[in-house]
Amino acid sequence: MKTIKKNIKYACSAQYFGLDKFTVSLLFSTPVLLFLLILNLTFGFNKQSLSLILIILMINGVLFINKKNKINFLWNLKFSKFIKNNKLGDFQTIDGKQIFKNSATIYYFLDSDSYLHIQIYTKGNHYTKKAQNLDAELMSLVKKELTNKLIFAEYTEYIFYLSNNKRYSMSEELLHLNSNRDELSFNHSVNWNLYKEPHLLVVGGTGSGKTFFLQELILKAYKKK
């Protein structure tokens, strides 16, 4: 996931690989620019060709500054294949090739807290319900457990936590960081005030550390009397 930069939104569908206007312009203008440069180097520079080169560069510069969706070629290929494999679109087979008439659009981004957000837009097509039940398929794709799923009117959002899960450290030094007698420190960022929120629910899978956590909690409460 290192190739996905934080707070940058990418787009992909089965019909295109997240190509924004800048990329399309660059794909078409690059051969033209090369052709013009070769002509100028061969026959000499003139004002008309130089003006055309400058105009093309200026257009690409404006599109680059204003572009919204970035390109992540590797993940766009994966999501494009994912859309096709899970039939999130309308397609027909012509001469043995699958041609998509339209498909779902996947937007994905990594936030500042290392959560990967995958948003699937279906525009109310017949595969909308399927897009709302892709938990196992997406977990297999990103190789992470699903943290949360949100179903909205326009899209379904799947959220994955990419960092390795670490147990809370309730070390002895945390007792001294918080002088408030009514609070217990779980770690350097989480405190529990026993009087403001007197109820605690501890849940987790087998081997996740519930017993160890409760033992540490009781010891900390005892040391704070």
UniProtKB/TrEMBL annotation:
Q: Where is the FtsK domain?
A: 187-221
The domain of life is Bacteria
- A GO MF label: ATP binding
Q: Which Pfam families match?
A: FtsK_SpoIIIE (PF01580)
State the UniProt keywords alphabetically: Membrane, Transmembrane, Transmembrane helix
Transmembrane segment boundaries: 21-43, 49-66
Q: What is this protein called?
A: FtsK domain-containing protein
Key word Metal-binding present in the record? no
Q: InterPro entries given for it?
A: FtsK_dom, P-loop_NTPase
